[in-house]
Amino acid sequence: MFDSSYFDRLSRLKLAINKKSSTLMQGARKSSRKGQSAEFSDFREYMPGDDLRSIDWNAYARLDRLYIKEYMEEKESTVTLFLDLSRSMDYGEKKKHELACEVTAALSCISLSSGDRVVIVDASAPERRFIASGGKAGLKGIVKFLEGCKSTEPSDLYGSVKNFGRMSPGATLIISDLLDEELIKNDGEKLKGLIRYLRYMKQDTKLLHVMAAEELDVTLSGTVNLIDSEDDTSRLKVTMDRTALEKYKKGLDEFISLIRNICRTNGADYHLLSTGASFDRIIFEELYDLYV
Questions:
Q1: Domains of the chain with bracketed CATH
Q2: Separation between Cα atoms, residue 153 and residue 180, nearest integer Å
Q3: How far apart are alpha carbons 162 and 272 in whole angstroms?
Q4: Which of 6, 50, 221, 269, by CA, is between 20 and 30 Å from 174?
Q5: Interacting residues of 229 by C-beta distance below 8 A, sequence separation 6+
Q6: CA-to-CA distance for 225 and 242, rounded, in angstroms?
Q7: Of all residues in the chain, what percent are helix, strand and coil, respectively (each to 5)?
Q8: pTM (2 d.p.)
Q9: Residue 269, beta-bridge partner list
Q10: Are the C-beta atoms of 290 and 269 separated by less than 8 Å?
């Protein structure tokens, strides 16, 4: 999917994760637990049983009391990516699911390079998931998993997240075109619930809204038959005149604004990604505020 030099460029980045990790694996994130990493945290008085190597003898010489140096313990965070592979993602000159998989691979590389644990979930079949850790060694398996991903059945993002199970504090990224009527009806009540649930699960939530260039800038003309990509039996005959295009543009703007506002008011980051943009621009510019 990417060559080694591109992975080297990605490994220089690091995802910004606001939730403190508390997992037991060693990694590169700062935990709320005290440990023996190189970053100093605080002093406290010595208690019987403490490691004598942690005593600050300079403080003892000045104060005639024993103090222990405490450090922030470095732990891995878990980065979970819910990948929408529904039929609607199989659209565009460059398929939306192709961009979604490429972005997933890039963000997985960044996470693994930071010592984080990566979990990729197929939202169309939540039991199909891939877990990787241990740095760059896990990249090969991730790329192989993503290369086998195809657009199949409709995704249930809400159900996939709610039924995922226990989540360690970390980051959750949802990568989808969000063309799910159940998710956005009633002013996006289900989407609001999904984001609030992730916040309750101590997840730093990021929604990557993938759309085809052809959806963002419609160039169809004349009378066309529109087919529901999730249900081949649903068809609509439309004359793509100026009035129809204006209505579409108005509906598209309202759709994007609804999702953006839901994210903003419920504590999630929102990014709109187009298949028409270069991959470098997406990763190194449009997603720049995902990194530290």
A1: 26-75 (no CATH), 78-290 (3.40.50.410)
A2: 12
A3: 24
A4: 6
A5: 87, 88, 90, 91
A6: 17
A7: 40, 30, 30
A8: 0.79
A9: 206
A10: yes
